[in-house]
């Protein structure tokens, strides 16, 4: 009996050592977090180690989780499309951009800003995490096409075309009013062409199904879903259905599984937490805020609900179910991970970036090889990034 337990301990330690080795050998890339919002609103110091759930990403924990690259999203919520709101979103995007740059410049030994796919490998050799910039919601563009290049020149390397409501580029998957453009607008078509020309990645997360198919038809380069999951596993309009995943893969793109609870496992609509959050969503017009003060009130109320009525979070295994589904559907070359940390993302067992190795352990447990895990953690996304750059070089 004693020998049996010793064998179990040996197998456990061997398994931990193997998963740690595989994780360290991967290029680990998270394609979506919302840290810039906290930099602007809360004065967050990313050089200090924090704790979830208040903060899930910081520079010390990026190294603890062996994260080689991460996209900081410049998120602006959708508001009524009047010039004043658009200009406010434009200024906020620049404010988040400047705050991110300042944070990175204060910690040059651990992080560096990146703009090219090749920067990931270069910075890995320097033992630094590459910080890329994305833009979540094209609202700050207004109707000014020149702003696409302006943000590209500032380092932004993808744009999530819309957020929870329709904008001037395309329809959203979750606008209560339904479609406005029946897909991508005429202005959105020009934005897609310009993004292809510049070598900026197009992100189809949040957009409607019709918008998705328009993007795949219009784009000359493969596209990504920076933080979306599989609708067949969790029936939410923000997730991609099987035909969308097949179409995305057929054009060489990649779906980055989002580890935000409601996109991983269908919500328990009978729970107090769910009912209270739904009341809040309706109170704040599907998260369209009249001003910054209202946004802060909404987030404070949201946090209060989660403290008083804690959610039962999905597990790492639940999230890997989505990876399994994509792999079974189209193969291992078209799936990755976009956490949505500090924008709602987080699992039981993977509460922040330092716990990313838990996902690797679950992948190993399910029989994925080291090479397959390397593809999931960063290889697939880097392939798309390089192809986007190559298309731009030919235009």
Structure description:
By secondary structure, this protein is α/β, with parallel strands linked by helices. It folds into two domains: 23-266 and 316-342 and 350-394, TIM Barrel (Alpha-Beta Barrel), CATH 3.20.20.140; 269-311. 48% of the residues lie in helices and 10% in strands. It contains 15 helices and nine strands. It has helices at 2-25, 35-42, 59-64, 83-105, 119-125, 146-153, 186-198, 209-218, 242-250, 261-264, 272-283, 292-308, 316-330, 357-365, 370-394; strands at residues 29-33, 69-75, 111-113, 129-136, 156-160, 201-203, 224-225, 254-257, 335-337. Strands 1, 2, 3, 4, 5 and 6 form a six-stranded parallel beta sheet that branches. It has a three-stranded parallel beta sheet with strand order 7-8-9. The longest helix is centred in the C-terminal third of the chain and has 25 residues, at 370-394. It is globular, with a radius of gyration of 20 Å. The N and C termini lie far apart (69 Å). The relative contact order is 0.14.
């Amino acid at each position: 009996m004693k020998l049996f337990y010793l064998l179990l301990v040996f197998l456990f330690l061997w398994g931990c050592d193997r998963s740690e080795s595989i994780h360290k050998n991967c290029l680990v890339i998270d394609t979506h977090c919302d840290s810039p919002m906290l930099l602007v609103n809360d004065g967050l110091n990313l050089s200090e180690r924090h704790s979830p759930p208040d903060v899930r990403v910081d520079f010390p924990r990026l190294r603890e989780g062996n994260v080689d690259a991460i996209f900081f999203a410049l998120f602006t919520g959708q508001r009524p499309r009047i010039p004043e709101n658009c200009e406010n979103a434009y200024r906020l995007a620049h404010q988040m951009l400047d705050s991110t740059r300042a944070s990175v410049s204060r910690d040059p030994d651990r992080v560096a800003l990146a703009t090219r796919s090749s920067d990931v490998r270069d910075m890995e050799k320097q033992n630094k995490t590459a910080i890329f910039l994305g833009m979540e919601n094209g609202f700050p563009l207004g109707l000014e096409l020149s702003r696409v290049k302006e943000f590209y020149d500032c380092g932004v390397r993808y744009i999530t075309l819309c957020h929870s409501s329709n904008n001037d580029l395309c329809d959203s998957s979750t606008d209560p009013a339904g479609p406005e453009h029946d897909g991508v607008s005429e202005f959105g078509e020009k934005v897609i062409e310009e993004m292809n020309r510049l070598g900026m990645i197009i992100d189809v997360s949040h957009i409607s199904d019709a918008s998705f198919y328009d993007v795949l038809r219009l784009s000359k380069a493969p596209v990504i879903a920076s933080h979306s999951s599989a609708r067949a596993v969790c029936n939410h309009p923000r997730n991609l259905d099987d035909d969308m995943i097949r179409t995305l893969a057929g054009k060489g793109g990649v779906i980055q599984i989002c580890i935000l609870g409601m996109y991983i496992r269908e919500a328990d609509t009978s729970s107090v937490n769910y009912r209270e959050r739904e009341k809040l969503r309706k109170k704040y017009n599907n998260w369209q805020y009249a001003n910054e003060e209202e946004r802060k009130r909404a987030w404070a109320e949201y946090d209060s609900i989660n403290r008083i009525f804690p959610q039962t979070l999905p597990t790492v295994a639940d999230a890997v179910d989505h990876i399994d589904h994509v792999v079974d559907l189209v193969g291992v070359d078209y799936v990755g991970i976009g956490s949505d940390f500090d924008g709602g993302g987080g699992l039981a067992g993977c509460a922040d970036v330092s716990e990313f190795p838990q996902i690797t352990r679950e992948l190993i447990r399910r029989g994925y090889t080291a090479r397959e895990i390397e593809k999931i953690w960063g290889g697939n996304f880097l392939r798309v990034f390089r192809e986007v750059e190559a298309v731009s070089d030919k235009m």
